Amino acid sequence: MSWRQVILLSSLLAMVLLCSMKQKIFMQESDASNFLKRRGKRSPKSQNEVNAENRQKLRDDELRREYYEEQRNEFENFVEEQRDEQEERTREAVEQWRQWHYDGLYPSYLYNRHHV
Fold first, then answer.
1. Residue burial 24-46, b: 16+ Cβ < 10 Å; e: rest
2. Tens digit of pLDDT for each residue in 11-61?
3. Rounded to an integer, what distance in angstroms lies between the CA atom of residue 81 and that of residue 98?
4. Which of the 8 DSSP states describes residue 102?
């Protein structure tokens, strides 16, 4: 393909994409005028507005719940890891103490020790 054909093909493709996107981006004139119309503060909300607000509140509640659940799970994992590490250190210390003070008898009792 020559460079002219490439440019022609790419510009044609861009024009087709823009035309198809125009239908998705812009709304009808009647919808646009209703969208921008302001409602008085004392006038009741339409059912669509109430539903939209309720959906937004439910979505916010769900996001908040997920966030705090994730934070709680991370903290629980952190605490569990800390506890496991502490138990491992304690077990190692006890094992070292037992090896150091082992008197050759099993079970090792203090009254089995031979004092010189």
1. eeeeeeeeeeeeeeeeeeeeeee
2. 888 877 777 665 556 666 666 666 666 667 778 888 988 999 999 999 999
3. 26
4. -
